[in-house]
Amino acid sequence: MFELLKVEARKALNILEKHEFVRIYTHYDADGIASGAIIATSLLRMGKSFQVSFLSGLNEGVEEDELIVFADMGSGYPDVISSLESDVIVVDHHFPVGRIEPKKNFAHINPHLSGIDGSFELSASATAYVLAQELGDNRDLSAIALVGIIGDKQRITGGNLQVVRNGIENGFIEEKDGLRLISGKVRDVLKLSLEPFLDFYSKEDELEEFLEKTGIDGEMNVDDLTAEEERKVANAIALRIMKMNSYPGVFEDVAGKKFYLKKEIIANAVMMSEVINATGRKANQSVGFGICMRDESFLTKGYKMWKKFTEEIHQEIDRMRYEVKEGRCIRYLVMENGTSTGPIASVFSRYLFSDRPFIALNIKKDGRVKVSARSNRKMAEIIDLAEVMRNAAEKTGGRGGGHAVAAGANITADVVDDFIREVDRLCCIQSGWN
């Protein structure tokens, strides 16, 4: 499956062998941080020096160097990549847009260019793992790749499954039957969980009633539940999700198999992914990066950031769920200086408003606007949010892209209304709902 990817990975190896220092730019979410850590660890083992920077997109600008590696970004910025007077390696899983015309040595490792669906079946971190395996014996980094796979809400199928199986076979990942939940006391997990989102955060009475009916002690640790106790929790969660306006496929994403990382400093793969993601969303990516590099000195700070971020998201969901507006073919939410658009758009699109694409816009104090668009796998068959975000942003002077099911854009505050109208129009055209 990876043969074509390996061809590009070997080209990347040939480029890397010519340099002693590598400048790495990677995305700031869990998949991007995991990708950066996989590449950095591989380079360390080769005796190379590196510097890592975390970006929300290449619109933020990059500094030239002799060799630049882009992780979880780059394929959608052919103009930026083509303008660089550097050797360049792109390790990305977003759909390539336009033609890259490099000025110097170039390798482009992207599953879409090898017949693999990077939107669902190979994350950026799993793509980075393919590269890492060409750079040396880096089989242990399959566990870090899994962190990115989970963080990007990808399916463990296709290329992702091959990476995970490699980790299991070599003793770095342990697979068990059960629910993919964060770690902690059952009561706290049900209250704080965003995937699945169970809407218990400000509903203590409902939570206690749920625990009583389920017959589970809320003070037990989730990771210590017996198979029978976990089955009871799973059935109760399924019933609660069914009563919400959830996308029917969400339960499949959390039930069936759970994963533990045998060599990482956070064992529960979902918990590690959530912590890494929170550090990125709170603009403290170096903490998440340190955890991926197995530096225990970052653990306490990472957990604190995760708890604070998760509580802020729940509070924002409680405040904003009644501010959601409707277009003809979309639902959208406009926030000012909000916590983070991505997790909120994910919860709203998967659990509360799952029948249409959901667009979350966050207007910042400096006039910039961060946009996150989310839907589900079924809806992605008829509406490509990456194309919608790219075209709507370009029409309003911004920049956008991503995946069919999860995309984003950067625009300015003065064009918000025009942008929303254009997004709605494009979604109506693609879906045929108008």
Annotated CATH topology of the largest domain: inorganic pyrophosphatase (n-terminal core)
Shape: globular
Q: Beta-sheet strand percentage?
A: 15-25%
Order of helical and strand elements: HEHEEHEEHHHEHHHHEHHHEEHEEHEEH
The total tally of domains equals 3
Number of distinct beta strands: 13
Architecture overview:
With about 425 residues, this protein is an alpha/beta fold. It has three domains: about 5-170, inorganic pyrophosphatase (n-terminal core) (Alpha-Beta Complex), CATH 3.90.1640.30; about 185-260; about 320-430, Diaminopimelate Epimerase, Chain A, domain 1. Helices cover about 45% and strands about 15% of the residues. It contains 16 helices and 13 strands. The chain has helices at about 5-15, 30-45, 80-85, 125-135, 140-150, 160-170, 185-190, 205-215, 225-245, 250-255, 270-280, 285-290, 300-320, 340-350, 385-395, 415-430; strands spanning about 20-25, 50-55, 65-70, 85-90, 105-110, 175-180, 255-260, 325, 330-335, 360-365, 370-375, 400, 405-410. Helix 2 crosses helix 11 and helix 5 packs antiparallel against helix 6. The chain is globular and about 65 Å long. It starts with a helix and ends with a helix.
